[in-house]
Each structure stands twice: as C-alpha cells, then as structure tokens.
Write a structure and sequence with these properties.
By secondary structure, the chain is an alpha/beta fold. It has two domains: 21-275, Alpha-Beta Complex (Spore Coat Polysaccharide Biosynthesis Protein SpsA, Chain A); 301-389, Hexapeptide repeat proteins (UDP N-Acetylglucosamine Acyltransferase, domain 1). It is built from eight helices and 33 strands. Strands 7-6-3-10-15-12-16 form a seven-stranded mixed beta sheet. Strands 18-21-24-27-30-33 form a six-stranded parallel beta sheet, with no helix packed on it. Strand 8 (107-108) and strand 9 form a beta hairpin. The longest helix is centred in the middle third of the chain and has 13 residues, at 214-226. 44% of the residues are buried.
C-alpha cells in the first residue's frame, strides 16, 4: 500500500514505529524523609496541591513535550501508584501509538532482580527498552515539582553531538553542598562531577534529569555487568565514567520553577507556594497543563458558617469551619467550629468540630477528632495516612 507517494511497510504501523526518545521515570524510592506520609505509599504517589500526585508533573511534562511512550520504574509500595497511573488514560496515553508501562522488580532463574540504584534500574529493564527501540532515553525522577520542555533539551543534546546531557539548575552557593554539582567549561561541556562537595567549585546542581544515547548507555551498562564493575548509580558511577572515558557530556541549564519535595519542610513549602499565583509554576497555563487521575466526587459545599480565605478547595469537600491559606484535597470534611491555617489536608480527611490545625500536613484518610489541636508552629506537624487523633467525630 502507498502513502504520500511511497510504499507503506509493516514498520510504518504504529506498533512498529521506532521511538526517537523513550522516557523512563524512576518512581521506586521509599521517601523515608517524608516519614508517616510514605509508610504505605511510594513517594511519587504522595498527594500534592489538592488535585495531583507528585508523579503527575513528570508524566505531564513528557506528554506536553511530545513523548508518547513512558516506562515507570516502581519498587516500594507501588499499589496506589499503579492504580493512579493505570493505562495512562488521564494523560492521553491509552492509544495505539502511545503507552505507559509499569516496570516492577522481578525474579528469574538467576535470582532476585531488586533495583539497587538508578542505573541498575535501567539495566534491569534493558529488554523493555530494547523492545521500544529508542535512539535516546530520557531518565527522570518521579518526585519533583516543575514544568519543563524535554524537547528543547533533546535539541540541545543533538546540537552538541552529546552522548549524555544533564539538566542543571543554578542554586544559591550556600546550598550547593546538598547537590551533585556539574562543573562545566565555556561551552557547557561537563568536565567534572562533584557529589555533594563541602567546597563546591560551581553552583550548577544536577536535577536528576538525563538524556542518553541509548546505544552507548546500553554498551556501558552491559560491559560493566559482564566485567563485574559496579555501575549502579548515575551520579556516583555512570556520569564520572562518561567524563573519564572522554564521552561528550553537556549541561542543559534550566531557569524555571523546580522543587525537590523529598522532605516534610520542602513538601509543605512547595504546597504553600502553590497557593501563590506568582510562584513561577503557572499551574493555570492552558498551554502546559498538568494532568491527573481524579476521583468522581460531588461539588464542594461551603456552609454559611464557614469562612474561607486565600485557600484551594477541591471537589467533594464539605466545609463548615474556618480555612485560611490552606489546601483541601478531594472529599475532605471540615466540621463546624474547626480552624485550619497554613496547612495541607490530603484526600479523605475528616476534621472534627472545634479542632484546630496550624502549620501541618494531614495525611490521606486521617481523622482529627473534635477539639483536637495539631500545632506545627515550631516544626511542621504531620499526621500520618489513616491516623486517628482524638475521638467523638459527628457522623453527620
């Protein structure tokens, strides 16, 4: 059959089309620094901003950048994350020429296949990547809040004839010791990598976003495994190996909003910034939407006794108390006389009569009883998922 004046073959069928770039989202971290909030859920599945989960940002960035196929590497407590992603319909990925695949650890005749690091997770999924036949792979973290056009990064990667491009963001010099630092020459070629240096030479912090030429990365990972050379982590092993080997490694500088929400303080701060229209995240930009899977819920209901100021309230909420500078996720109930200020209330929470919540994060499906006080004035207070504080909740 001919199309556009040329003969169409099986390779033109969407199922056989070569992917220029495949995205691999690493979403298997335990998120131990988030404490109670990740006891039964992977960090990328933690709710954010009332309507989203953290991983929504990486997936939406891929879709908005024109990336049609995504692999999501999971490991720790994946149930909620898997259910949230599903077949990718919420992101328009449930099509013949697109898809999202959950990649979990497995065992075979050689034994356990648990992922031991970022690079090892990619190595363990070589068969999947080969089946997609990409020229490039985009490796992402599933626990950052940001908007980024990965196509712009790919174009720079091509222009530099690079084997590896690392996205970097300039951080304050006093914060640089917390990051992997990429030192570059005048052409943005990375000449040195410093892992959390005490005295950093620059402030170009790695964002954990990489574009690799797949053929070269595959060669490095397979050869290292065959020679029993440790190549488990991109920051610790792979990037230094590339630089030492003379591979063309370049930095792609990002100047927009980006937050690593891996701690209680950073998660709380990012949510509070979410309430600020001037934060730089521009969540209402129709040209770069952040998509998510949301539950079917009735409209919010705010009683005449409620007072709401400078807050976000999502579908399914019932509010009969006072809410100030806070985020109420789906299906939250705030009973009469309760006061919530500077706090994040995650989905399904019930806050009883006359309870007071200040500077806090309340986990999914938690119950805060009548007259209870949750005060995070000196340190952000956290109530875990399904945790119960106090008693006498009114069933009405």
């Amino acid at each position: 059959m001919k199309r556009g004046g040329r003969m169409v073959t099986d390779s033109d069928h969407p199922l056989f089309m070569k992917n220029e770039m495949l995205a691999m989202i690493l979403a298997g971290g335990k998120g131990t620094r988030l404490g109670k909030l990740t006891q039964n859920v992977a960090k990328p599945a933690v709710p954010f901003g009332g309507r989203y989960r953290i991983i929504d940002f990486a997936i939406s960035n891929c879709v908005n950048s024109g990336i049609k196929n995504i692999g999501v590497v999971t490991q720790y407590q994946p149930l909620i994350l898997n259910n949230h992603i599903g077949n990718g319909a919420s992101w328009g990925l449930d099509r013949l020429d697109a898809g999202i695949t959950i990649l979990q650890p497995y065992s075979n005749n050689e034994g356990s296949k648990w992922f031991e690091g970022t690079a090892h997770a990619i190595y363990q999924n070589i068969d999947y990547i080969d089946s997609m036949d990409p020229e490039y792979i985009l490796v992402l973290s599933g626990d950052h809040i940001y908007k980024m056009d990965y196509d712009e990064m790919l174009e720079q990667h091509k222009q530099n004839n690079a084997e590896l491009t690392v996205a970097v963001i300039d951080v304050p010099m006093e914060e640089a010791p917390r990051f992997g630092i990429m030192n570059t020459d005048d052409n943005d070629r990375i000449i040195e990598f410093e892992e959390k240096p005490e005295n950093p030479k620059s402030n170009h912090a790695s964002m954990g976003i990489y574009i690799f030429n797949w053929k070269r990365l595959r060669e490095v990972l397979v050869n290292s495994a065959n020679k029993d050379v440790e190549m488990l982590d991109f920051g610790k092993n792979v990037i230094p190996f590339y630089i030492k080997s003379g591979d063309r490694v370049f930095a792609h500088t990002y100047n927009g909003y980006w937050r690593d929400v891996g701690t209680i303080d950073s998660l709380w701060s990012a949510n509070m910034e979410f309430l600020d229209n001037e934060s730089g995240l521009t969540i209402r930009d129709k040209n770069w939407r952040i998509y998510s899977k949301n539950p079917v819920a009735p409209p919010q209901f705010i009683t005449e006794k409620a007072q709401v100021k400078d807050s976000m309230i999502v579908d399914g909420c019932y509010v009969s108390g006072d809410i100030e500078h806070s985020i109420l996720s789906s299906n939250v109930q705030i009973k009469e006389g309760a006061k919530v200020k500077d706090s994040i209330i995650m989905p399904g929470v019930i806050v009883g009569k006359n309870a007071k919540i200040n500077n806090a994060i309340i986990g999914e499906d938690a119950i805060i009883g009548n007259d209870a006080i949750i005060d995070g004035q000196t340190e952000i207070a956290v109530v875990g998922n399904a945790e119960v504080v106090g008693v006498d909740i009114d069933e009405g």
